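=== Structure Prediction Worksheet ===
Name of assembly: unnamed complex
Input type: mixed (protein and possibly other molecules)
Chain count: two
Listed entries:
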Amino acid sequence: MGDWIVVPIVLPAVMAALIVLAVRHDIVLQRVFSITATVALVGVTLSLVVFANGHDPEMYALSDWPAPFGIVLVLDRLSAMMVFLTSLLGLGVVLFASSEWDQRGKHFHALFQFQLMGVNGAFLTGDVFNLFVFFEVLLIASYGLMLHGAGAERLKAGMQYVVINLTGSALFLLGVGMIYSVTGTLNMADLAIQVANVAPGDAALLRAGALVLLLVFCVKAALVPIHFWLPGTYANAPAPVAALFAIMTKVGAYSVLRVYSLAFGDMAGDMSWLAQPYLLPAALITLVLGMTGVLAAKRLNGLIAFSVIGSMGTLLTAIALFTPESIAAGLYYLLHSTFSAAALFLIADLVVSRRGQYGDSLHTAPTFHQSGFMAVLFFAGAIAMAGMPPLSGFLGKLQILDAARGSDAMVWIWAIILVTSLMCIIGFGRAGSVLFWKSASVEGEITVEGAKWPVLPIVAACGMLSGLVALTAFAGPITDYLHGVAEQVFNTSGYIQAVLGENALALLGR
Amino acid sequence: MEFLVASSIGLLTMCGTYLLLRGRTFPVVIGLALISYAVNVFLFAMGRLTINMPPILRDGVTEYTDPLPQALVLTAIVISFGMTALIVVLSIRAYLEIGNDHVDGRPVGAPSEAGDKN
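=== Predicted Assembly ===
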């Protein structure tokens, strides 16, 4: 299986170059190449998930340079799950975009494949500096996608998005520099060993570097107080891009989980669970703020963007507890919130494109084509996001509440998650009743040009929703798998031995 | 030398942060460039400051400078260079489309439109 680990990075990279060099003039060929590559990626990542489930973590050394000197990619259950999630989401997005969105600007499919490459790379890499490089790859592609088919509002939001992320990149380098100056390594597994052995005099510098890095990951994960870029960006991005960005916030959450459980986890001595005291309050405030935004939103896309912030708060609350149960619960919620956010953005675009001049403003308007069918889709997406039964959001939140039972902050976590769920239900309920129910009694009908039954977008939106249904229907096996994932996350010595060899742990406590 | 390098990094970061917080795109772009210079020098200094030493470890060489930060900083320079080019083009495009060069798209003193957004 060894060489297959690099395929989720190489396949989109080759495909992107091929699309931009060979078939840039032919939109049909671009679609064929892009969809075929994404389907192949789903197949490859699925086999990686199956492989990782039955094995210890496996390493792929780029150019065969041995760790810790070369860059390594590491496949374990967590990274396999994340690349599989990325490819499933990517398939939905590329199908949605292939009906019409990809013609509103140039090079959608090439940028899309580069984006997949960056996200997959960030999930697979076992090196902190390489993580920076893949962050940049996914960001550069996302700048292009964000501005796809431009327009004044989108340029304004895009400008702010680029500036905040460039500042984030500068901070990332500062953090990496500080960590390197103390430990002399950037390989995550080696870092875990060096952090445990760090001299007391250098501990403060290392701690500062690690916290700067946490700040950067929290920018990506849109955690308070650095969440402010997300509503503008997501609400103004093209719909398929906003749906794809559902995985970008998860890259931040994944990085927090990976770095702060491996290098600053159980073995780190004084610096054990360094992130926890900062992460938990920030995550809870994020949850409150996001769901308050859902109540206050005046545009449909803004409403969904704020619900994404809220769901990131829920996810990071679970991660911040750093127990095997909470991680398993958090990962279940991660799968759920990725699909539900993507589904909502796609459905919102179907609605907005039918409302013509009324766009996504939450005001009553005459009924539009397929209003009833859209209402059903929106209702399904909304109950998923709000965490109501029967869909998986309910199970995810239930597991998180259950995992928080032993925690000191249990009262806070329970109170905030339950109250914000109610706020989310009210916010989405109000939006839905304005868009579909109250609008039904308005005279007239909106007619817009275009296909009456755009097959691909509806298939994509329903595909995202069926992902949620599958998560609910197979909750048992998926939860079992996720407990295996969490167990492997906490078994850091397995990860270290996979990267540095069997004898690496002898270096601990020398 | 340590004092010189450290204070120049501090000065660059200070000016960069000030400019980054300005309301027009041009100072923001310059601020980002200054911060990326500061970060590059900082990253370079992370391998410790040594003068006239070979960056490659060979037999018989006991005094050397750490080559890894040099490789890292090269990557960082390439990325920040590309990013600066991108944001310059983006600012010009935004200026042409929106009609002014303010980061939130409206001149100072113009009525807030925050009320009807989102």
